[in-house]
Amino acid sequence: MKVGPIQIFVSDFKKAEKWYSTVLGMKLVKRYPKFKCVLMKLSPVEFDIGTPIPNWGKDWDKLKIGGRTPIFFETDNIKNTVKELKQKGVKFTEEISMRSWGEYKAVFVDPDGNEFSLIEINVGSSYSEMQKGVYTGRAKAVSKDEMLREYAKEKGYKL
User: Fold this and answer.
1) At residue 103, does pLDDT exceed 70?
2) Rounded to two decimals, what is the model's pTM?
């Protein structure tokens, strides 16, 4: 068994195809005009982006478009990615914040109001190092909070 395409519901699948390719860099895999959807890919993950219609099956056309999704996009540099997305006109409902476990997160929306989390996992193996109380290979014991503050300072993030 494997995970299939992740569905994103939109009001206009043709406009969504353009937005997801130009803004997020997704690549078109296949168009399904009869079913008002497109199959797109970002890295190894496929997305089924479509406008819910009755011929998808019973009550599919009644699905809600917009709102919080459980979809996370990961980046190596959240600060730069947020800046790039804003330059492309993307709206953010949550600016960059640091989560208690050391991850940076921001939330952006597509034109239909679907909300997606954008995350940056702290330096390579720092999360596991953080658990041991060691930061970036230095044999200096620090608390989790101290390590996160130091990482944020190095990255230029404000806490």
Assistant:
1) yes
2) 0.76
